[in-house]
Amino acid sequence: MTWFFKLNVIDGPLPLTVWGLTAVAVVALLIRRPTPAWLWRIVIALVVGVGGGIALVAFVNATHVFGPALPYACWFWVPGGFGALVFGIASLWERGVWRRIVAALLVILALLSTTLGVNAAFGINTTVGSMLGVSTADKIDNLPKPAPTATSSGPLYKTWKPPADIPKTGETAALSGDHAIPTTGSFKPRDGVLYLPPAARTKNPPRLPLIVMMMGFPGDPDATFIAKALDDLAAKNNGLAPIVIVADQLGVTKDDPVCANTAKYGDVPSYFNVDIPAFATKNLNISLDHKDWTIMGYSNGGACAFTWATHHPDIWGNIVAISPDEYPGVEWRDQAIRTLFDGDAAKFDALRAEAGVAENPGKFTGHLAVFTVGGADPGYIPGTQRDAKIAEDAGFTTTFHEAPGADHVAGALNTGIPFAMDLLYKHLGLSAP
Questions:
Q1: What distance in Å separates the CA atoms of residue 373 and residue 380, rounded to the nearest whole number?
Q2: 250-273 in b/e burial notation, b at 16+ Cβ within 10 A?
Q3: pLDDT tens sequence across 183-219
Q4: Which of 58-67, 247-256, 369-378 is predicted least confidently?
Q5: What percent of the chain shows pLDDT beyond 90?
Q6: pTM exceeds 0.85 for this model
């Protein structure tokens, strides 16, 4: 079944087939001699279905029940899908067995088409597995052994000479089973995903920088976007790229633990700032200089990344935040304080980057901070700007980038990650300044 979970659900044969069959079913049910009763039934079905879909999208956008506004394409997929769904339900009482069978199929196909269409509008879950929360990363037989520590005579873009047989792309693998990241605290994460760039897959690889990345909420550890960006950059830079661990900050409950140590969700900070660094140092061929280590996150993960970059400057030399929440738990602050911190707002606010900066004055010189946000993501622009200002004032070498036309979903990742990685490459000596 692995092949099924790897099927593309954005623009591959699967969604195109489902959408095509849905259209065929609609047309088949429309081919009949019209009667006044049938026409009224169809008109009512379309008004109820399409109108209900429009009302639902408008309600979600007005209340922000799922965070930012839905992608624009949802204005088509939800009303259109609901219209087809109600049309199928209304056609279940048609005369003729075959028409009833087609109507029943249309009900199923309309639900699938709407789900696939909305998913494609977001663009985050690219496979069946990622939609269902099932990892499609291959199992890894052996982690590459760390090389002996060597004194470099200069940045890697100058000193690294790739062998003739260097792979053209990196590989991703599940950090599961014997290769799972051991946890010493109470937090229960889902399996992470490892990205090894081409240079790491050679016989005598160099020690490479480390990135620990987090996706958003809701979301899963998924290396799709970061792997593509790094493969593209590695192809231009002799196969060089950081080694990446995409780790889980949400846990097996898939809730939002607000990047904190709480009785309900466990010690998330310990997992990221103790367990993952220990695992990476022991098992991966990474630079042991923490100025080469980057904590990175998207949306919810970006909030965690920034707070940990400020609270642990000895571990994380750099921070990349792609369309980040302004701070952990910003979307449900009052409820989080009440349910996770027994009403103690001071404990909640101690998670914020400002608290980390106050604890570590003068420790961020030479640390790179990159904040990106989509120009079509107005709800996240002010908070990202405020975060960038906090980092700049703290001493980080800070860049704020607003990507024209990008939204909060796939657009944010497809524009933000390449921009940030280009700056990070130059900072880490993987490409010429």
A1: 7
A2: bbeeeebbbbbbbeebbbbbbbbb
A3: 998 999 999 999 999 999 998 899 999 999 999 998 8
A4: 58-67
A5: 73
A6: yes
176 in the same domain as 112: no
- Residue type at 261? N
Q: Do the Cβ atoms of 127 and 160 come closer than 8 Å?
A: no
The CATH number of the domain holding residue 198 is 3.40.50.1820
List the domain range (segments joined by +) for residue 338.
Answer: 135-428
Q: Within 13 A of 374's CA, how many CA atoms are on the CB side? A: 21
Write 6-9 long-range contacts (CB < 8 A, 24+): 6/127, 6/128, 6/129, 6/136, 7/127, 7/128, 8/126, 8/127, 9/116, 9/119, 9/120, 9/125, 9/126, 9/127, 9/128, 9/131
How many helical (H) and strand (E) elements, i.e. helices and strands, does the chain have? Answer: 16, 11
Q: What is the DSSP letter of 140?
A: -
- Are 198 and 165 in contact, with CB atoms under 8 Å apart? no
Same domain, 56 and 99: yes
Answer with the one of 122, 152, 167 that is the final residue of a domain. Answer: 122
Write the DSSP string, 149-182.
P---SS-HHHH----TT--SS-EEEEE-GGGSPP
Domain tally, the chain: 2
Amino acid at 189: P
56 and 146 belong to one structural domain: no
Assess whether 145 and 207 both reside in one domain.
yes
Same domain membership, residue 257 and residue 157: yes
What's the rounded Cα separation, in Å, for the pair 207 and 57?
Answer: 49
- Residue 244 CA to residue 226 CA, distance in Å, equals 8
Q: Is residue 348 part of a domain?
A: yes
Does residue 182 sit within a domain? yes
What are the tokens at 316?
């994380």
Question: What angle do helix axes 36-63 and 74-90 make, rounded to 10 degrees?
Answer: 140
Q: Does residue 321 lie within any of the structural domains? A: yes
